[in-house]
Amino acid sequence: MIRVEQIAKRYGDVTVLDDLDLAIPNGRLTAIIGANGAGKSTLLSIMSRLLPADSGRVFVDDLDLSRTRSALVATRLAVLRQDTTMTARLTVRELVSFGRFPHSRGHLTPDDHRIVSDALGFFELEELEHRYLDQLSGGQRQRAFVAMVLAQDAPYVLLDEPLNNLDMRHAARMMRHLRALVDERGKTVVLVIHDINFAAAHADHIVALKQGVVVAAGPPAHVMTETRLQDIYDFPIAVHTIDGVPYAIYYR
Amino acid sequence: MTAPSIMAAPVSPAEAPAEPRRQTVRRRLALLALAAVVLVLAYQFAFVGDADAGYVMGLRLRQLGALVVVGAATGFATVLFQTIANSRILTPGVMGFDALFVFVQTIFVAVFGSAIVVDVDVRTRFLIDLVVMSAFGTVLFRWIFRRSSRDLFVLVLIGIVLGSLFTSLSLLSSRLLSPDDFLTLQDLTFASFNTVDRHLLVLTAVITVAAISAGIPLLRRLDVVALGRDSAVTLGVDYHRVVTATLLVVTVLVAVSTALVGPLTFVGLIVANLARRVLPTYRHSVLVTGAALWGIAFTVGGQFLVARVLDFSTTLTVCVNLVGGVYYVWLLLREATS
After folding, report:
1. Per-residue pLDDT tens for B129-180?
2. Chain B residue numbers touching A190 (CB-CB < 8 A)
């Protein structure tokens, strides 16, 4: 389980996270939602140890992130950032192989190669494995990065807006892949997401942030009500249930 | 930030599977090594003429030693620096390191007078240079990277500003020197391979080998650092430590070769980019080898051209700055338009 205890983050007078407490259930797909500036990405960065918190602690199982060697954390926690630009020119397979670094420290064993191939297969990238990243479409590129995260073979996977810049088809495909990571591989997946309907359709657990605190948490049916959404986003949102999934309608 | 396209190596066939590509890399590395060896042999044995052969051979061997050490150290250091800076157009030379060297020399002469050259043993002076440059360089680079590691053009700007600052300070201080001291200073700050002190050369070679050996264990982690800070941290690399250690190695290497022959600002930029262009790989073990070989070929070949073909009608520094300056502007323009 990932436990966030009393995390605070301030920039000058602006409080981004206000003594936030949170528990992420194991073996579930958890979506973190909220308006712009609610602190979603900051929270994920702190949970990924990419950003130090001003106070408070994050535990992954029994490990206190601030006191654990980064190399050990990397075997438990895999992270995909929003900004994936890089200067190195890599093929898909080379990129995915980097996911093995926490285990192999750069010396790939036959086992590592097998796990890399498996990750490539899981995200249907076999035919693209020798392509360079700059020759891929946005959707393919994003899948390659998530495949790297899978190759890291950590029980916890954190993703910051993995649907960014993806069209409807690729976004839905990415969500099905992430869903399969939970259902078939038993991973605990946490993602920050803007489109709350994707969260409602695929997540087991939704955490809503507002002004640096958790204002609602629970299964989609619990969070996706008209009163709660109005409270989270500060404007009226209609909710219609289709095939058992509550969808928010907010386009007009 | 840097667009991925700037790293594009159009030489490699796009769809080449891993195995042939690895062979391409190996073949090109072997070719580079061969070219470096041929140039070294040509430098040593071609155009001896009817001068005293023993004297010529000894002199050339010393010159070669300096050229090889400087070429290899510069290539190795620049590839490392580029990875840490996350950019192909940033090198220690471009970031004002050479101007710093000139400044330090100016201060020495201004404070101690020409006497420092006569009274103080050349090795002692070299070691003082080295310590001051390394300490100052490490502090400077750490400070720069902590403040603004995100924005490439801010870094370029800082480099230009620092370069001008050190140059202006050197100019100002040199105005205050006596003509004798000024001549001494000119002698100290002009890159020259023609007269190389043997003891200094041995010392330089030892330090260079030591620094490169210290850099080798970092190479695999630098492969990961090249993915960017966030990816490196999430993959369990102790980013802060790797960057600090790398900067230390780079600073010592650059300080050593600058102290030996003087500033050659654009050599690093040229050879590191040539290596990255010719060798389609992300592996630093390959890239640094390639850059070191390019460095040797470039310095030895350049000096061969200047000394034997152009008969010293110009200097290596002038040639390097001409070629390197144009190349730098071209890289900057490409970066700006991409």
Report:
1. 788 888 877 777 777 766 545 566 677 777 788 888 888 888 888 788 888 8
2. none
Contact B313, B53 (CB under 8 A): no
Decide if pLDDT at B294 tops 90.
yes
Which residues of chain B are at the A interface, by a Cβ-Cβ cutoff of 8 Å? 1-9, 14-18, 86-88, 220-221, 223-224, 226-228, 230-231, 233-238, 280, 282
Domains, chain B, in order of start with CATH, read: 28-40+57-337 (1.10.3470.10)
Top residue of A68, A77, A89, A98 to mutate, by most chain B CBs within 10 Å, is: A89
Cβ–Cβ < 8 Å for B109, B116: yes
End-to-end C-alpha distance for chain B, whole angstroms = 11
- In this prediction, does ipTM exceed 0.90? no
Cα B294 to Cα B72: distance, rounded to the nearest angstrom: 8
Angle between helices B53-85 and B18-45 (to 10 degrees): 150
CB within 8 Å: A87 and B230: no
Residues from chain A that touch B1, judged by Cβ atoms under 8 A, are 85
Q: Which chain A residues are within 8 Å of B22, Cβ to Cβ?
A: none
Judge contact between A188 and A27, C-beta under 8 A.
Answer: yes
What would the DSSP string read from start to end of A130-193?
TSBGGGS-HHHHHHHHHHHHHHTT-SEEEEE-TTTT--HHHHHHHHHHHHHHHHHH--EEEEE-
Strands A2-11, A77-80: parallel, antiparallel or unpaired by DSSP? unpaired
CB contact under 8 Å between B231 and A89, yes or no, is: no
Q: What are phi and psi of A83, to 5 degrees?
A: -90, 110
Listed by number, the residues of chain A in 31-50 with a beta carbon closer than 8 Å to a beta carbon of chain B are 48-50
Please state the φ and ψ torsions of residue A114, each to the nearest 5 degrees: -65, -45
The mean pLDDT value for B180-184 works out to 79
As a whole number of angstroms, the distance between CA B216 and CA B164 comes to 33
Instruction: Tell me the C-alpha distance between B4 and A87, whole Å.
Output: 5
**Dihedral sign computed on CA atoms, order B183, B189, B192, B194:** positive
CA-angle at B318, arms to B35 and B273, nearest 5°: 45
d(CA B158, CA B108): 25
Closest CA to A145 of A128, B319, B79: A128
A159 Cα to chain B: minimum distance (Å):
12
Tell me the pairing of strands A55-60 and A2-11: antiparallel
Query: Cβ–Cβ contacts within 10 Å for residue A6, how many?
Result: 13
